[in-house]
Amino acid sequence: MRTDTGKNKKKIREKDVERYLVERAERLGFLVRKVSWRGHRGAPDRVLFRKDGVVVWVEIKKPGGRLSTVQKNEIGVLSNYLQHVAVIYSKDDADSLFTGINSIEPR
């Protein structure tokens, strides 16, 4: 009998999680944009806009990935400005994000 040693398991990459997030968000009717700050590091990867005005910034990491100090600082700044910010590490995290977004009231 052969057992799976894990060598053939495909590792989930950050771009796999990002692709899943974007596809799911668009299916749910969100406007999705890639984010990049000019001359400033640490921008979250994506921003999601819901038609009722709710905005969620999303930093995407591969499973086991870590936020850099610059990213942690930027998340803090956005949070101080009452922005919704999420960090996701997996497709399950993306699913949980959308469950949580449903409870956010427009401002």
Give a description of the structure.
The protein has about 110 residues and is of the alpha+beta class. The protein has one domain: Trna Endonuclease, Chain: A, domain 1 (3-Layer(aba) Sandwich), CATH 3.40.1350.10. The protein is built from three helices and four strands, in the order H-E-E-E-H-E-H. It has helices at about 15-25, 70-80, 90-100, and strands spanning about 30-35, 45-50, 55-60, 85-90. A four-stranded mixed beta sheet has the order 1-2-3-4, sandwiched between helices. Strand 2 and strand 3 form a beta hairpin. Helix 1 runs parallel beside helix 3. The chain is globular. The model has no long low-confidence stretch (mean pLDDT about 90).
Search tags:
about 110 residues, Trna Endonuclease, Chain: A, domain 1, alpha+beta, 4-stranded mixed beta sheet, 3 helices, about 35% helix, globular
SSE string: HEEEHEH
What CATH architecture would you give? 3-Layer(aba) Sandwich
Shape: globular
Could you name the ranges where pLDDT drops below 50 across 5 or more consecutive residues?
none
Strand fraction band?
Answer: 15-25%
What topology, given as strand order, has the largest sheet?
1-2-3-4
What is the tally of helical segments? 3
Backbone CA Rg? 16 Å
Number of strands: 4
CATH C-level category: Alpha Beta
Distance between the termini: 59 Å
Topology record:
Layout: H1 14-27, E1 31-34, E2 46-49, E3 55-60, H2 69-80, E4 84-88, H3 91-101
Helix pairs in contact: 1-3
Short summary of the structure?
By secondary structure, the chain is of the alpha+beta class. The chain has helices at residues 14-27, 69-80, 91-101; strands at 31-34, 46-49, 55-60, 84-88.
